[in-house]
Structure formats: structure tokens, C-alpha cells
Design brief:
The chain is built from 25 helices and 2 strands. With about 500 residues, it is mainly alpha-helical. A two-stranded antiparallel ribbon has the order 1-2.
């Protein structure tokens, strides 16, 4: 773990960087293995993920194969989160600054804005709205008259009860975002035991009512037939992993707080593995078991909860589902957006300013209107995911292959107007490789014969970008060794590297 001294921090402050963007000092790097073990559990168990499993069930794979694919996905997700967060845990630097090493001081703005602003803000608004629908159910059970407020009058396409529920739930999400990683850790410590109670309990309930043998042999009425089972297995893995494209890109926003690389690596790996084993078993058992029990295919856990006779059980389950949505929103959306917006104007904006700006925009885009046209939303998100996969590939290749796990912090925290690392602050090779990888990964959306490629878009994007960037940047390094030596060895001599950490 590389430590910076006060003199370096003061130098970076004098260049106009807020404390939120500076390398974390040792006393602020307090997250241990348990913190990372609990970090992502709420992000695994949320309503959209359970709905996605319903889609997996109609692909034609057996329920056991779907469980296995989800569990395999967890280790791939963990590997990407750990590796792309390695620089953050080593230098204590957030994603917005780490991205500069790969794309340049100016070049980092585009992929950073795309992930930290566009994708994160849109997802934040949509998650707030999706969560508010569950919150509306909860309010309706506790106070039925609440649903009659306004007499059905709509404002910008949303009813008054719906708008109130949205704004209340939005405010809670914003509050968690303001607290940053510290508040999030306390929140997840409360949430995680509840996740095991609710979703573990629902799985036991479903198995008891439907029978585990019936669940294992369950086949939906509208199941697809004739597909290649190996390819479909990979499609499920790609779908699960692609959901993590955005958090994986900005993993350093969380690993910058790590006590060590080992702490974040061990914590994230075991945390994601445990969470996804529970999710794999629980999601399939709950959805298949409920469908068998109620005699109708049910893909939404909220629909199941609404059918329960016990008011207490329904309210408790909805509350936990709301908490998982908040956890997902904080880790994957509002915290990265806050850091990225602050990085755009480091002299004028802090992390909290970034959170507030992102939160306000998330309301102004009227997410309930966006959800009226699901086809355009999913097309947009598919494109964002297709772009972020190649960004991960470039970042991994640059840090591990080209820079050999060494970063010159002075070149990242450069004087305003000075663009170290690359000419005019842009790494043109990174941009070319990213664009080519994006075109290839999304080619199936425009060329029917390549449709299978797009169904594995995240994998294709990461692999193509990693391989191409590693190859061409390595050739460039051989021709220009002094350029890379200046940007690595100078910093190593100044600070020193302890051990052989990633």
C-alpha cells in the first residue's frame, strides 16, 4: 500500500483538488475484510435481479443449470471488482482520478461522465422510481386512504400519491448518498441479516409449499426450446455479470478506503460468492415455487409478497426489499456520480455537491416517464453496458500490463492546464480500442448474423479491449520506453512501494 505525505497532499490541494478527490491517508483507509464482505449483498438481492431470473427460466435451461450459472457469475464479478479496484486500494485514489491513467487527464472526462453521470444518474432515478412502487404498496397496506389522495389527478404523468412516495424514497436515497461509504457500511450492517431472514425465509416457504423436487423439475409454460445449452449458460452468465459493468468500472471509489489489497480482495470475493449462492438458490426456488403454488407464472417478488395473508410478513418483506434498493442505488449510482461530478470541476465542487446535482437531475428527467417505454430504456442501457465493458478492458490492460501496477500520482494530480501522460491529455490509443471494441460487442444489434455476439456483449467488449490495448500499447512501450519510465519510476522513488501488492 502506497502512502502519501502531507506535503504531497498540500501540493495537490494547491492545484485545486478538493479533499474528496485526494489520495486517502492511512488514517482514512479503515475498511477491512468484513466491510467489503457486507458491501454488495444488498446490490445482489433486489427486485430487478429477481425479475431477470424469471427471464432466465424461460430460456430452456434447467433450474439447476441456472443456479450454477449464477454462482459461476459471482466469481467472475468478484475477480473484476477486485482487479479493477487494485489501484484504488494501493494508492487510495477514487475512480475519477484512476481513470486518468488510462485515458488521460482530459480524455478521462468522457468515459467518466458516461459511467458516473449519464448511466449512474439515469439508473439512480429509475431505481428510486422502482423502489417507490414498492413503497407505495407499503403505504397502501398501512394507510389505504393514502392511495386516494388527489382523486387520481396526475402531475407530469405520475399520480400525487405516487409522486409523494417517489420523493420520500428519493430523499432517503440522497441522505445515504450524502453519508458516503461510512454511512453505507452502517446501513449494510443492519440490512444483511434482514436479507437472510426475508429471502432465505421465502425460499424455505416456497420449497415447503411446492416441494424441492418439483422446483428442480419446473418448466415454465412458455419456455423456449431448441437452444444450445452451453451458449445459453454463457448468456445467463453474461447477463448477470453485465449488471455489474458500471460498479466494476468505478470499483476504486470503494477500494480507496481499504486497509490493504488483501482486505478488499478477500472481502469482496467471499461476500459476492455468499450473496450469490443465496441468491441463486433463493431466486429460483421462490419464483418457481410460487409459480407452482399459485398456478400462474410469477416473476416479481413484490407480486408474491402482495398475496400473503400476513400483514406483518408482507410489510417486513417490502421494507427489506426497499433497503436492498437503497443499498444498490448508493453503491452503484449516487456515490460514483458524486465523485465524478466533483472531478469535472475539482476547484468548485465537492463530493456532496456532486451528490446533490446528480440527485436533482434524477428527478428532472422524470424517470416514471422513461419507464413508459421499456424498449428504449433497455436499448440505452445495453449501449451503456456495451461501452463500459471495453472501458474495463482498457483499464485492466493499462494498469497490469502496461504500467506494471505503478502510477505516478503527480501526473494524475497535474496542474490545471497541464496534461501529463498523453499529448493534450488524451490517450488516443485507448479511445480507438474502446470504440472498436464497442462496435464489435454491439454489432449483433445491427447485423442479424452476429446476434450471438451481442448476447455475450460484456465478455466480448472486455476481452477485445483488453487484448487489443495490451498488444498495441506494449508495442508502443517498446518504441518509447522513456515515456513510461518517467511516469512510473519517478513516483516509485519518491514514495516507495511496500511489499508486492497489486
Amino acid at each position: 500500500m502506497v502512502q502519501v505525505d502531507n506535503a504531497q497532499l498540500e501540493k495537490y490541494r494547491s492545484r485545486g483538488y478538493s479533499d474528496d478527490l485526494l489520495p486517502k491517508t492511512e488514517n482514512k483507509r479503515t475498511w477491512g475484510t468484513f466491510n467489503y464482505f457486507t458491501l454488495w449483498m444488498g446490490s445482489v438481492h433486489n427486485v430487478p435481479n429477481y425479475v431477470a431470473v424469471g427471464g432466465f427460466l424461460i430460456l430452456g435451461l434447467s433450474t439447476v443449470s441456472i443456479m450454477a450459472a449464477i454462482i459461476v457469475s459471482s466469481f467472475i464479478i468478484a475477480a473484476v471488482m477486485v482487479l479493477n479496484g487494485a489501484a484504488g486500494s494501493k494508492y487510495g485514489v477514487p475512480f475519477a482520478m484512476i481513470l486518468r491513467a488510462s485515458y488521460g487527464v482530459r480524455g478521462a472526462l468522457f468515459p467518466g461522465i458516461l459511467r458516473g453521470c449519464v448511466a449512474a444518474i439515469m439508473w439512480f432515478g429509475l431505481q428510486c422510481y422502482a423502489g417507490s412502487l414498492a413503497f407505495l404498496i407499503l403505504l397502501g397496506k398501512i394507510w389505504p386512504g393514502f392511495l386516494e389522495i388527489g382523486g387520481g389527478v396526475s402531475i407530469l404523468g405520475i399520480t400525487i400519491p405516487g409522486l409523494i412516495a417517489f420523493l420520500l424514497f428519493w430523499a432517503v436515497n440522497v441522505a445515504i448518498g450524502f453519508g458516503g461509504g461510512g454511512v453505507l457500511n452502517k446501513f449494510t450492517a443492519i440490512l444483511n441479516p434482514c436479507i437472510y431472514i426475508v429471502f432465505g425465509g421465502m425460499a424455505i416457504w416456497a420449497i415447503y409449499l411446492a416441494g424441492f423436487g418439483n422446483i428442480v423439475n419446473y418448466v415454465p409454460a412458455n419456455v423456449q426450446t431448441g437452444g444450445n445449452s452451453i451458449f445459453l449458460f454463457l448468456v445467463v452468465i453474461n447477463a448477470v455479470v453485465a449488471v455489474w459493468a458500471a460498479p466494476a468500472v468505478s470499483a476504486s471509489d470503494f477500494t480507496q478506503n481499504a486497509k490493504s489489497f488483501k482486505a478488499q480482495a478477500t472481502g469482496q470475493t467471499f461476500g459476492l460468492a455468499v450473496a450469490y449462492v443465496l441468491f441463486a438458490v433463493a431466486s429460483v426456488c421462490i419464483l418457481a415455487g410460487a409459480s407452482i403454488h399459485y398456478g400462474t407464472e410469477t416473476w416479481n417478488v413484490l407480486d408474491i409478497v402482495q398475496k400473503w395473508d400476513s400483514l406483518f410478513a408482507s410489510i417486513f418483506a417490502v421494507l427489506v426489499i426497499l433497503m436492498t434498493t437503497i443499498s444498490t442505488n448508493a453503491t452503484g449510482n449516487i456515490i460514483p456520480a458524486g465523485y465524478q461530478i466533483a472531478a469535472i470541476f475539482p476547484k468548485k465542487l465537492t463530493y456532496k455537491h456532486g451528490v446533490m446535482i446528480a440527485s436533482i437531475i434524477s428527478v428532472l428527467i422524470c424517470p416514471w416517464k422513461l419507464m413508459e417505454n421499456q424498449a428504449s430504456i433497455y436499448l440505452f442501457l445495453d449501449i451503456i453496458g456495451g461501452i463500459l465493458g471495453p472501458v474495463i478492458g482498457v483499464m485492466l490492460a493499462h494498469y497490469f500490463i502496461i504500467m506494471r501496477r505503478q502510477i505516478n500520482l503527480d501526473s494524475l494530480y497535474t496542474e490545471p492546464g497541464q496534461f501529463s501522460y498523453y499529448k493534450n491529455g488524451f490517450n488516443s490509443l485507448a479511445f480507438v480500442v474502446t470504440i472498436v471494441a464497442v462496435i464489435i460487442s454491439l454489432s449483433g444489434k445491427f447485423i442479424p448474423v452476429l446476434e450471438p455476439v451481442s448476447r455475450l456483449s460484456w465478455f466480448v467488449g472486455v476481452i477485445v479491449a483488453f487484448g487489443a490495448y495490451a498488444l498495441f500499447a506494449s508495442l508502443h512501450r517498446k518504441k518509447n520506453p522513456s515515456f513510461y519510465d518517467e511516469n512510473t519510476e519517478v513516483q516509485i522513488k519518491k514514495i516507495g512501494v511496500e511489499g508486492n501488492e497489486l
